[in-house]
Write a sequence for this structure.
């Protein structure tokens, strides 16, 4: 009996040690380190040797219970080692290798047809019909460590060269600071600004965004999401100037030069007043507020054309320019794509304050979003007040809703219940998702007469006035990553010099993202 027990124990230990690819001798020593029997410590023969048989005449039957006890102890140790081995193997398989990366991108092919009344043509220029790529972007993003991520994004739709967009490094899980980001990115201001281009309800963002928001700049940001994920907050410090020290719009060159001023701070906070945790973003109501303070900058080097800090805003009618949008054109000309309908003129200024309130509401297939923004510019002739607002309503005919990003406080992708599948042999199996929407927006940009005589670079108050846009649109989501859009934009311009005029834009887009 003792022979069977001893050989069984030896075979079990040897087999387990071999299977775990461990050092057999070390494993056996660990198992038998303090195992003893009344006859003394059991000594195992080397692998491949025969176990010695006991002399049946001298064997003591009283040893059998002790040997059986030793076997139970060995079995317990084997079980413990096996569990430890499984945990180590699982931990090893779960360990991620860095750096990681993945590619993403999207293209947007736009077509525009303009219908302007004669006075509108005389005021803003004769806008030309056209087709072209509004955006064509590629990005690579990933992690270099567990809490360190990165993104590099370039756009190829701007004629002549790629342009910098969201390019940054991010460190998360930081005490008190939450997530830190350094690089070029969208500044924390406005839900309209922070909603990704590929997820917009309309082809372009609203008039207040186009008129007032600094948008992408080089800086450093700290963002935080509360433990219950109902509130978010972000603050950013960044360089004010964009292309040629422009205070607003994208900084597509990823650089900013100037010894004079040129620093800003922006912050935004959001809170979910209502959120159904069991409905996957389908029912929610969120509110938020943003504030931006910008000290305007200038490049004082010899040969610079921007030696004086200045402010200027130009507003397009909610349809973006095609082609080389870096080539600016004076107000009243339309030789380079969509013309500006509003232009404040360029004038000396020291700083500006920008504030905004926002709300977003989603009730199943219904969605509502609205914002109000106000800017106060401290100019050489005193403070100048501008303001604007928009409200939009959307309904998904097929019943879907948009996802909500709690960290960014923005609405995101719509996922169709069924993809559009036109070629199934048994007939059409899905029509994708359909969304219809309407938006009204306005901006009021009128300068005081005291500013006459202070304009820079040949600009004037010729583009001052108010602009109201009403937009009707539809979106057909063929699948999660492909959509067709169409917008009818009716523009009502009240120019301070020429008076009231109207224009209609019929625009479309084909988009695919991955």
């Amino acid at each position: 009996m003792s022979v069977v027990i001893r050989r069984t124990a030896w075979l079990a230990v040897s087999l387990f040690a071999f299977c775990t690819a461990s050092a057999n001798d070390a494993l056996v020593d660990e198992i038998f380190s303090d195992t003893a029997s009344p006859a003394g410590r059991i000594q195992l023969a080397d692998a491949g040797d025969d176990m010695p048989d006991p002399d049946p005449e001298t064997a003591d039957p009283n040893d059998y219970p002790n040997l059986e006890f030793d076997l139970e102890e060995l079995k317990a140790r084997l079980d413990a080692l096996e569990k430890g081995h499984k945990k180590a193997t699982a931990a090893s398989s779960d360990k991620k290798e860095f750096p990681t990366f993945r590619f993403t991108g999207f293209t947007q092919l736009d077509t525009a047809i303009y219908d302007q009344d004669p006075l509108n043509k005389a005021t803003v220029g004769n806008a030309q019909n056209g087709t072209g790529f509004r955006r064509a972007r590629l990005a690579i993003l990933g992690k270099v460590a567990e809490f360190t991520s990165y993104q590099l994004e370039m756009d190829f739709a701007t004629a002549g060269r790629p342009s910098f967009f969201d390019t940054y490094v991010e460190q998360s899980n930081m005490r008190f600071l939450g997530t830190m980001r350094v690089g070029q990115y969208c500044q924390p201001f406005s839900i309209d600004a922070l909603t990704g281009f590929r997820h917009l309800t309309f082809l372009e963002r609203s008039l207040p965004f186009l008129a007032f928001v600094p948008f992408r700049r080089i800086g450093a940001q700290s963002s935080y999401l509360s433990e219950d994920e109902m509130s978010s907050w972000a603050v950013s410090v960044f360089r004010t100037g964009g292309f040629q020290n422009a205070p607003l719009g994208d900084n597509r060159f990823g650089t900013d030069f100037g010894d004079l001023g040129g620093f800003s701070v922006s912050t935004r906070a959001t809170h979910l007043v209502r959120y159904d945790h069991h409905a996957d973003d389908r029912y929610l109501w969120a509110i938020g507020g943003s504030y931006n303070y910008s000290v305007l900058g200038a490049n004082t080097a010899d040969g610079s054309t921007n030696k004086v800090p200045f402010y200027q805003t130009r507003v397009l009618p909610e349809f973006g320019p095609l082609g080389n949008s870096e080539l600016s054109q004076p107000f009243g000309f339309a030789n380079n794509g969509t013309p500006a309908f509003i232009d404040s003129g360029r004038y000396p200024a020291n700083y500006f304050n920008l504030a905004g309130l926002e709300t977003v509401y989603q009730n199943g297939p219904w969605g509502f979003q609205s914002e109000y923004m106000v800017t106060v510019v401290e100019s050489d002739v005193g403070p100048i007040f501008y303001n604007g607002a928009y409200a939009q309503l959307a309904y998904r005919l097929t019943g879907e809703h948009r996802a909500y990003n709690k960290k960014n406080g923005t609405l995101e992708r719509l996922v169709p219940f069924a993809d559009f599948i036109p070629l199934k042999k048994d007939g059409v199996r899905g029509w994708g998702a359909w969304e219809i929407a309407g938006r009204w927006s306005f901006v009021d940009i009128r300068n005081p007469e005291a500013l006459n005589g202070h304009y820079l670079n040949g600009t004037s108050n010729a583009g001052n006035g108010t602009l109201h846009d009403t937009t009707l649109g539809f979106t057909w989501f063929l699948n999660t990553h492909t959509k067709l859009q169409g917008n009818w934009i009716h523009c009502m311009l009240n120019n301070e010099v020429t008076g009231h005029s109207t224009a209609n834009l019929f625009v479309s887009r084909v988009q695919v993202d991955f």
In short: The longest strand covers residues 347-363.
